[in-house]
Amino acid sequence: MLYIVIPVFNRLAYTRACLDALRRQTTQQFRTVVVDDGSTDGTAEVLAREYSEVIVVPGTGQLFWTAGVNAGLRRALAEGADRLMTMNNDVVAAPDFVARMLHWAERYPDALLGALELDVHSGQPVYGGEQFSWLTHRSEDLLSKLTPPQRRGLHPVTYLPGRGLLIPAQVVAAIGLFDEKRLPHYLADYDYTSVARRHGFPVYLNYDAHLLTYPEESGQEQTRRQRSLRGYYQHLFGIRGGGNLVNFTHFALKNCPPLLLPSFLLNGYVRRLGGYFLH
User: Fold this and answer.
1) Cβ atoms within 10 Å of 43's Cβ, excluding its own
2) What are the angstrom distances between the C-alpha of 218 and each of 96, 146, 272?
3) Handedness of CA 161, 83, 21, 150 (dihedral sign)
4) Disulfide-capable partner of 157 in 128, 129, 193, 250 (CB 3.0 to 4.6 Å)?
């Protein structure tokens, strides 16, 4: 059975939309686990009153993304899950999303799978996976590489985000859970899928499965909107900072080939120090 794990902190309207989309799935061969990390907007009451089918795991208010996901994954595994999925609450799954993920999961049972992301407002593709070069520190965006007729089926990628990430239980048995100690919020998903790929588990972007997302709602975008010294500090050192230098260093040390590490770190530091004001 597939278990979908959704960590939430407030933003009840997004959580409702996400759960309602899961209720509309063409297959209901899954269970949903919501990790409510101390929400103060009535999330716990609404879940208990309106979504009785959802397993709720309470948090302390200090879990952030990675520890929240891990808490949900532990509960799912205790329930007997053989497939796991991490999902953010600010996504809306297309009605056949789960069915199309399970279609390929059955054919590639040891693969980690992500989904094609579409802008919820325009319906246009916004994320279709990346193939990353440690040498040049550049990503090749598959959306720009693939023609529309090629945007179907599975395509190999270097890593995947945690929005709609399907993980076979045997991956967790082999490499454990997400690295909540060193990567408490950002990069934990890219790290996890990179580690899994190095352990021999294929990592694919499933172009047949679609998620509607809100690109403007990411923590990185909200931090950059401030354009202030405080925002710059949060960008570089805050737990939710997309350019967090400590998290980037941990990610690099864990995943970059040793011979390329010095140049990769230097390149990454320069990009993060200057990128806040350029984007």
Assistant:
1) 22
2) 25, 25, 17
3) positive
4) 129
Check residue 134 and give its pLDDT. 92
Q: What does the pLDDT look like over 124-145, one tens digit per residue?
A: 999 999 999 998 889 999 999 9
d(CA 141, CA 174): 29
Q: Which two three-digit tokens encode residue 135? A: 């040498």
First and final CA of the chain: distance in angstroms?
42
- Reference 120, options 96, 146, 152, 94; nearest CA is 94
DSSP assignment letter at 276: H
Is the CB of residue 27 less than 8 Å from the CB of residue 98? yes
Q: How far apart are CA 197 and CA 159, in angstroms?
A: 8
Phi then psi for 272, rounded to 5 degrees? -75, -35
Strand partners, 125: 118
Domain boundaries, the chain: 2-217, 220-278
pLDDT, tens digit (0-9, with 9 covering 90-100), for 148-182: 999 999 999 999 999 999 999 999 999 999 999 99
**Res 271: pLDDT:** 86
CA dist 23 → 76, 199, 216, 252, 266 (Å):
19, 35, 25, 39, 46
Per CATH, which fold does 2-217 belong to? Spore Coat Polysaccharide Biosynthesis Protein SpsA; Chain A (3.90.550)
Task: Measure the CA angle with vertex 112, ends 106 and 113; round to 5°.
Answer: 80
